[in-house]
Amino acid sequence: MAVLLGVAGCEPPVAILSIESDPSPSVSPSPEASPLFDPEELAERLVAIQRQWPRNSLPKPPGARGVNCARIRCVALTFDDGPGPYTGRLLDILARHQARATFFVLGRMVAEDRGENLRRMVVEGHEIGNHTWDHLPLPQLSEKSIRFELDSTQKIVRRLSGVKMTMMRPPYGSTGRRVAAEASRLGLAQVMWSVDTLDWRDRDSRLVAQRAAQATPGAIVLMHDIHPTTVEAVPAVLNQFVQRGYTFVTLSELYGVPRLVPGRAYTSMGDGARGTAATEIP
After folding, report:
1. Which of 75, 92, 172, 269 is packed most tightly, with the most Cβ within 10 A?
2. pLDDT at 25
3. Predicted pLDDT of residue 43
């Protein structure tokens, strides 16, 4: 059974939030067996109790901001599919406006980038989320392959930036019971969007800015930092929201809780901390 969620924001377009009943994997990367424990987490604990051991040089995020989106106008800008060749320019633009955003990254893109943009995101106060390793439609994969797509991305982001991600965005917005179960197992909430700029389809900066401007307080705006036209649209997007008195926040700041419910699906601030269970969508 499939339910219309909205026009999907990743290429190729898929406009469904799917709930699978009889999964038959059609695509299967080479999954790796998951260890019984997280070796990086264990290493951190050992370092913590052994003061003479050398510390890592991973970046430190800035302190938490006192943002209350229940009282002020907030909008969460999110960027998928990177980091890519235009991500650095986007970070420059966001820095000039003192704007924070959330980046849902692909594991293979992180590997190509070698963590450079990732570490800058951390230092400048942006949030990082899991967008899988290869951008495959997760409901079409086996449970093992779903686990590989999410877990491999968790590990490389943790290794290169020190960040343990708590959110994921399924490619094409396509999810289901097995996807929710694997996300829950890894401690990942599923965060979708409420405003799709369709920047993947219409490579027109003017149109992207117009669509983003339709956001209302508490909205989650979907864009992609792999398109130069999207990055070119961001200054206009930021200026429009500034004129309307908006604050640019990360998803954690938008929801006002340190951690969303793992496995549950969220589309806007209006979902609250409960979200929507993927298995309960009619």
Report:
1. 75
2. 40
3. 53
User: Could you read off the pLDDT of 172-188 as tens digits, one per residue?
Assistant: 999 999 999 999 999 99
CB atoms within 10 A of CB 27: 13
The 3-state secondary structure of the chain, one letter per residue: CEEECCCCCCCCCCCEEECCCCCCCCCCCCCCCCCCCCHHHHHHHHHHHCCCCCCCCCCCCCCCCCCCCCCCCEEEEEEECCCCCCHHHHHHHHHHCCCCCEEEECHHHHHHHCCHHHHHHHHCCCEEEECCCCCCCHHHCCHHHHHHHHHHHHHHHHHHHCCCCCEECCHHHCCCHHHHHHHHHCCCEEECCCEECCCCCCCCHHHHHHHHCCCCCCEEEEEECCCHHHHHHHHHHHHHHHHCCCEECCHHHHHCCCCCCCCCEECCHHHCCCCECHHHCC
For 209-235, how does the pLDDT look when each residue is reduced to its tens digit (9 = 90+)? 999 999 999 999 999 999 999 999 999
Q: How far apart are CA 239 and CA 99, in angstroms?
A: 11
β-pairing, 2-4 vs 16-18, is antiparallel
Q: Degrees (nearest 5) of the Cα angle 32, 175, 221?
A: 110
Compute the mean pLDDT over every residue in the chain, rounded to the nearest whole number: 84
Question: In angstroms, rounded to a whole number, what is the distance separating the alpha carbons of residues 208 and 113?
Answer: 26
